[in-house]
Every structure is written in structure tokens, then in C-alpha cells.
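Sample entry as discussed:
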Amino acid sequence: MDKYPKLKNQYKQLYKQVASVLLTHDPVGIFFGDNVDEYDPEVSTILPKLKNCKSEKDVLELVYKEFVKWFDESIIGPKTKYKPIAKEIWEIWCRHTA
């Protein structure tokens, strides 16, 4: 059962794109190919806060903070690991808001 239909409907393609970035990078190693909704909780807390980001660095802080909240720092690894994720999400966000 889809736990985030309202957010998926609100953000549509943006939701799919951000989820795809997280699945592709799989920063905590929880994606096994068929569990495509595995990062939906993180996407659901990242997307509403993207509007407050003014740079790729802001996105890095946001994404890392959300992963710390959902997991544990010992599980998620160093912040530098999230730089490529932040870069891609920032690019997606910039295209979305253009």
C-alpha cells in the first residue's frame, strides 16, 4: 500500500526523480531492485524542504540531516558520501523551478 499518495500527487515527476536519485545511489544499502518505495519516507521529508534551499550545499545539509533523522549516523556514513546525491537533487530542483 502506498503510504505517500498525497505527496506523490503534489510533486508528481519531481517525487519520482528524487526517489530515483536515492535508489540509484542507495546510500544506506537498502535497495535490492524490487523494493522501489524503499526511500519514500526520506523523499517525503526532503521534498517539502527543498524550497528553503538556495544552493547545492543547502541540499547536502538537508539530505544528510534527513538521513540522520531516519537512520543513524553510524549507518549513513560521512556527509561527503551525499555530495553526488545533493548535486543531482539540486540540478533536478533547479530544472523544476525554472
